[in-house]
């Protein structure tokens, strides 16, 4: 495979960081990956190699990016059962079980969903240029539900562009503690990582970043509710923190003040549906993941 050349003309009225501009134009790559391309001399600004990732570009600037072919991952697929919802030449839609990490990280070098997908479809290696073959989005370890993997580079690019533009619609179902007075609500608490507790997110009206979740009550019990949650932004633990901030933490979510329970051994959160534009047919498609046993059982008991 040969390098791909992308050329852009910066036409905004105000100057902008080079890496921020490229993230918007090449959403299939993370900012870290683009910063690597800049450092390795693959990005030219007005014909000269970019000096640094934070270089400011002015109106009228010409940017050229030489994108090398995806690097095959060193990851080895594992024969781990997959719950496949749908598959064709472009997509692999799976129902991720709770307790499984999506991609390798410190402490999770094997047994991830990526390892399982590679065991099923080795040709996904290298898509996206990083060691996250075919991955478009992720779910927390404790969250179950629907996920999409791209089976080729064009599908990966299409889905990442939709993700960047907030055109992929994600609907979660959650069991919360309490009985809200409202039937529908939009919450916009700004969020940031809790310094000193990297695995926890907190509301911060002054220094937090924008976060929006649309909530709708689907069913009510004496002391619990089933809620449909649609995150309009993608912050860590967004749904969990927004419901906690409203006073209705998720059942089983001891990280955010819920009491321990025998009903479910994790936060009761399930990625229920995923809607996006199909990369080939250009039709809007929706995929649904049925509730796992623990979520269904908890729901029936309350």
Notes on the structure:
- The structure is a single chain.
- The chain has 302 residues and is α+β, with helices and mostly antiparallel strands.
- It is built from six helices and 17 strands.
- It folds into three domains: 4-67, Roll (Structural Genomics Hypothetical 15.5 Kd Protein In mrcA-pckA Intergenic Region, Chain A), CATH 3.10.290; 71-163, Pseudouridine synthase (2-Layer Sandwich); 171-270, Pseudouridine synthase.
- Helix content is 18%, strand content 29%.
- The longest helix is centred in the middle third of the chain and has 12 residues, at 153-164.
- The radius of gyration is 21 Å and the shape is globular.
- The mean pLDDT is 90.
The CATH architecture term of the largest domain is 2-Layer Sandwich
The figure for the number of domains is 3
Runs in which pLDDT lies below 50 for 5 or more consecutive residues are none
The biggest beta sheet, please?
A: 9 strands, mixed
* Beginning-to-end CA distance, first to last residue: 56 Å
Count the DSSP helices.
6
- Give the CA-based shape: globular
Give the SSE order as H and E letters.
Answer: EEHHEEEEEEHEHEEEEEEHEEH
Give me the Rg, rounded: 21 Å
At CATH level 3, the topology of the largest domain is: Pseudouridine synthase
**Strand-pairing-aware structural class:** alpha+beta
Mean pLDDT: 90
Q: In the CATH hierarchy, what is the class of the largest domain?
A: Alpha Beta
Number of strands: 17
CATH superfamily of the largest domain: Pseudouridine synthase
| Percentage of residues assigned to helices | 10-25%
Strand content: 25-35%
């Amino acid at each position: 495979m040969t390098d791909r050349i992308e050329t852009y003309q910066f036409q905004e009225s105000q100057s902008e960081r080079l890496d921020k501009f490229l993230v918007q134009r090449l959403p299939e790559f993370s900012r870290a990956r683009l910063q690597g391309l800049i450092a390795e001399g693959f990005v030219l600004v007005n014909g000269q190699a970019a000096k640094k990732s934070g270089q400011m570009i002015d109106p009228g600037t010409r940017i050229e990016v030489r994108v090398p072919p995806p690097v095959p991952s060193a990851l080895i697929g594992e024969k781990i059962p997959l719950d496949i919802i749908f598959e064709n030449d472009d997509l692999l839609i799976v129902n991720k079980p709770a307790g499984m990490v999506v991609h390798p990280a410190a402490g999770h070098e094997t047994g991830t969903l990526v390892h399982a997908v590679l065991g099923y479809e080795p040709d996904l290696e290298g898509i996206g240029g990083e060691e996250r073959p075919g991955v478009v989005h992720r779910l927390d370890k404790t969250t179950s539900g629907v996920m999409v993997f791209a089976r080729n580079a064009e599908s990966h690019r299409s889905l990442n562009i939709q993700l960047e533009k907030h055109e992929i619609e994600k609907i979660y179902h959650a069991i919360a503690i309490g009985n809200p007075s409202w039937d529908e609500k939009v919450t916009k608490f700004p969020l940031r990582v809790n310094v000193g507790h990297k695995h926890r997110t907190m509301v911060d009206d002054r220094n937090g970043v924008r976060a929006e979740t649309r909530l709708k009550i689907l069913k009510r019990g004496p002391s619990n509710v089933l809620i449909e949650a649609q995150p309009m932004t993608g912050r860590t633990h967004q749904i969990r923190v927004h419901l906690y901030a409203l006073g209705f933490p998720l059942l089983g979510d001891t990280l955010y003040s819920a009491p321990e329970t025998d009903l479910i051994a994790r936060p009761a959160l399930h990625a229920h549906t995923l809607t996006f534009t199909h990369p080939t047919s250009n039709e809007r498609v929706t995929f649904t993941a049925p509730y796992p046993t623990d979520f269904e059982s908890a729901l029936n008991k309350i």
